[in-house]
């Protein structure tokens, strides 16, 4: 019996634990986006903003452009919080997708 157990443990392989793979989401992709691939919110059109930004439709994108024009351009991403309907969560989801130049 001891010989049998010994031979079983000698040939048994131990599998590495399997780590679950998180599903890819827009948020995950946003965090990994390279800065050069981010959308410049100071030059983007409303269509571009609504296509790229999470939780931003065409009407909200138009509000972003209106604020951009009033400010003469954004100097901080946090200025997007002045657009009605954009809160901290929306800003956080989009930080990896947008940039200022």
Automatic annotation (TrEMBL):
Q: Which residues form the signal peptide?
A: 1-15
Q: Which Pfam families does the record match to this protein?
A: HHH_3
InterPro entries noted in UniProt: Competence_ComEA_HhH, Endo/Exo/Phosphatase_dom_1, RuvA_2-like
Source domain of life is: Bacteria
Q: Does the keyword Repeat apply?
A: no
* A GO CC term attached to the entry: type II protein secretion system complex
Alphabetical keyword list: Signal
GO process annotations (BP)? protein secretion by the type II secretion system
Establish whether keyword Transmembrane helix is in the entry.
Answer: no
State what protein this is by name: DNA uptake protein
């Amino acid at each position: 019996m001891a010989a049998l157990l010994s031979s079983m443990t000698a040939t048994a392989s131990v599998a590495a634990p399997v780590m679950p793979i998180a599903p890819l989401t827009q948020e995950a992709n946003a965090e990994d986006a390279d800065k050069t691939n981010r959308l410049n919110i100071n030059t983007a059109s409303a269509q571009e903003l609504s296509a790229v930004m999470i939780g931003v439709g065409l009407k909200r994108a138009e509000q972003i452009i209106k604020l951009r024009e009033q400010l003469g351009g954004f100097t901080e991403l946090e200025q997007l919080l002045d657009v009605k309907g954009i809160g901290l969560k929306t800003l956080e989801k989009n930080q990896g997708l947008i940039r200022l130049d």
